[in-house]
Design brief:
This protein is an alpha+beta fold and 297 residues long. It is built from 5 helices and 18 strands. Bound molecules: fe (ii) ion.
């Protein structure tokens, strides 16, 4: 059983037009727009679907308003899909759609799905030298892939939520803290593809992170978003756990989105770190006033 990555994210949104505009400005290519909403397809082959919150085809959510309604994971082959179906079928309902995709709920009730990972578009070779090549990037972001998603978990449920992904779906632990657990699926070296964030009393979707090239693309993308009227949720910084550079924005589709770059890479030699005290949110952040009062980590 090998889960490769986040494959597709399905949002249910109150203001569908605003949601579509947001992801267009975020830098995702829209491949289809119609009465049901829009579908964005990234160069990685991953997709984002913006649907009406009232769409009866979407899985129900305990959250009201705009939010993520289903997180679909991509797997490497048909045998993995069958293995996941058999494993989850032992103690929960597993639906199967017309394309063979699976649909279920995780241990704390988030709707999850599984299907074969789509192929990525061929990548243009990067310039090997700066010689006679002035730096002149596009003044906005064009994320290449979705790297991770984050769910807030009510504090008492963190252990069982984590065990589900580790034991049933073969995720690996990168860092475990009292504030939450950073997990990576089998097909990635990224420090986390799923962060389960411990909250005193709340179970909710928190954010999805899109990888960009570097700090320039984070800042150019964020400034473009602000110019289009979207609101930053943090300033630019670098996390401690995962070490990624970041900038978060409030998403009208629900939760936040994050531009990130330069995340730690882990392989089988990585020994999970268990922290008795959380080492902190950021090693630096542009607006230092954000550090003491931050409620999200
Ligand atoms: Fe993140």
């Amino acid at each position: 059983m090998k889960i490769s990555r986040v494959e597709s994210l399905v949002y249910g949104v109150k203001d569908v037009d605003a949601g579509i505009r947001y992801f267009e400005d975020w830098g995702l290519p829209c491949i289809e727009r119609g009465a049901r909403g829009a579908e964005f397809r990234m160069p990685s082959g991953q997709s984002i679907l913006v649907r009406s919150a009232a769409d009866p085809a979407l899985p129900a959510s305990a959250e009201s308003g705009s939010t993520l309604r289903e997180a679909i994971w991509g797997v490497d082959d048909a045998a993995s899909l069958e293995a996941i179906g058999a494993e989850l079928g032992r103690d929960r309902e597993v639906g199967r759609d017309a394309q063979g995709g699976l649909h279920a709920r995780d241990e704390t009730g988030f709707a999850i799905g599984f299907r074969m990972a789509a192929p990525a578009a061929p990548r243009a070779p990067a310039a090997s030298s700066r010689m006679n090549r002035p730096f002149d990037p596009e003044r906005r972001a064009r994320p290449r892939k979705v790297g991770h998603i984050v769910f807030s978990i009510a504090r008492g449920d963190l252990e069982k939520a984590t065990a589900f992904y580790l034991q049933r779906l073969k995720f690996r632990l990168s860092d475990g803290t009292p504030g939450g657990n950073f997990l990576r699926c089998a097909g990635t070296h990224d420090h986390h593809s799923l962060f389960l964030l411990s909250r005193p009393d709340r179970r909710a979707f928190d954010h999805v992170a899109f990888e960009v090239r570097d700090i320039d693309e984070i800042i150019l993308g964020g400034k473009f978003m602000m110019g289009r009227g979207w609101k930053p949720n943090t300033s630019v910084g670098r996390h401690i756990l995962g070490s990624n550079l970041f900038w978060y924005f409030d998403n009208p589709c629900g939760g936040r989105t994050e531009y990130y770059a330069d995340m730690d890479q882990m392989d089988d030699d990585w020994k999970p770190r268990i922290w008795e005290k959380h080492p902190g949110y950021a090693m630096w952040i542009m607006d230092k006033d954000e550090l003491p009062g931050l409620t999200h980590i």
